[in-house]
From TrEMBL:
<dbReference type="GO" id="GO:0004550">
    <property type="term" value="F:nucleoside diphosphate kinase activity"/>
</dbReference>
<dbReference type="InterPro" id="IPR001564">
    <property type="entry name" value="Nucleoside_diP_kinase"/>
</dbReference>
<dbReference type="GO" id="GO:0006241">
    <property type="term" value="P:CTP biosynthetic process"/>
</dbReference>
<dbReference type="GO" id="GO:0046872">
    <property type="term" value="F:metal ion binding"/>
</dbReference>
<keyword id="KW-0963">Cytoplasm</keyword>
<dbReference type="InterPro" id="IPR034907">
    <property type="entry name" value="NDK-like_dom"/>
</dbReference>
<feature type="active site" description="Pros-phosphohistidine intermediate">
    <location>
        <position position="130"/>
    </location>
</feature>
<keyword id="KW-0460">Magnesium</keyword>
<keyword id="KW-0418">Kinase</keyword>
<keyword id="KW-0067">ATP-binding</keyword>
<dbReference type="InterPro" id="IPR036850">
    <property type="entry name" value="NDK-like_dom_sf"/>
</dbReference>
<dbReference type="Pfam" id="PF00334">
    <property type="entry name" value="NDK"/>
</dbReference>
<keyword id="KW-0479">Metal-binding</keyword>
<dbReference type="InterPro" id="IPR023005">
    <property type="entry name" value="Nucleoside_diP_kinase_AS"/>
</dbReference>
<keyword id="KW-0546">Nucleotide metabolism</keyword>
<feature type="binding site">
    <location>
        <position position="113"/>
    </location>
    <ligand>
        <name>ATP</name>
    </ligand>
</feature>
<feature type="binding site">
    <location>
        <position position="68"/>
    </location>
    <ligand>
        <name>ATP</name>
    </ligand>
</feature>
Length: 149
């Protein structure tokens, strides 16, 4: 086991993880949580929910208008999503590392996407998980998905 983070440790931060509808559908929610916990991160909040167009427009604000945006929204609304807020030292970078590259075909084996996702012809990449890309994004996204936190 690892030394638990000190409460005043400035490297402790939070990030938002989403198990996307493909991951939930394929029964990979537990596998994602298992990897997060095995790495030494702490679960702060977990909720299974259905995304709405408004929530996704805010969550994916940087992608609104791109070619893959509407297919992405349709995919993200194709079934329930497991939203998870997690905490730990350098967890934003750390979870991105666990998740692997966006394109599951190219993601390294050993990562969540590399082990469980493939991408092929269609415009939208079904890649099992989302992880915030910076501490600023994480704060914004956690407020969106967990307004009570
Ligand atoms: N995406 C896609 N096609 C693209 C780029 C992105 O389908 O050409 C989807 C994919 O599901 C990805 C999400 O949009 O995870 C957000 O894209 P981003 O570039 O932020 O990748 P991420 O941070 O999720 O790796």
């Amino acid at each position: 086991t690892q030394t638990p983070p000190e409460t005043n440790d400035p490297t402790v931060e939070r990030t938002l993880v989403l198990v996307k509808p493909d991951g939930v559908r394929r029964g990979l929610s537990g596998e994602v949580l298992r990897r997060v916990e095995a790495k030494g991160y702490t679960l702060v909040a977990v909720e299974l929910l259905d995304a709405t167009p408004g929530l996704l427009a805010e969550h994916y604000a940087e992608h609104v208008g791109k070619e893959f945006y509407q297919p992405l929204v349709d995919f993200m609304m194709s079934g329930p999503i497991l939203a998870v807020a997690i905490e730990g030292q350098r967890v934003v970078e750390g979870f991105r590392s666990l998740a692997g590259a966006t394109d599951g075909t190219l993601a390294s084996p050993g990562t969540i996407r590399g082990d469980f996702a493939r991408s092929w012809g269609s415009k939208v990449m079904q890649n099992i998980v989302h992880g915030s890309d910076s501490p600023e994004s994480a704060a914004r996204e956690i407020a969106l998905w967990f307004p009570k936190l």
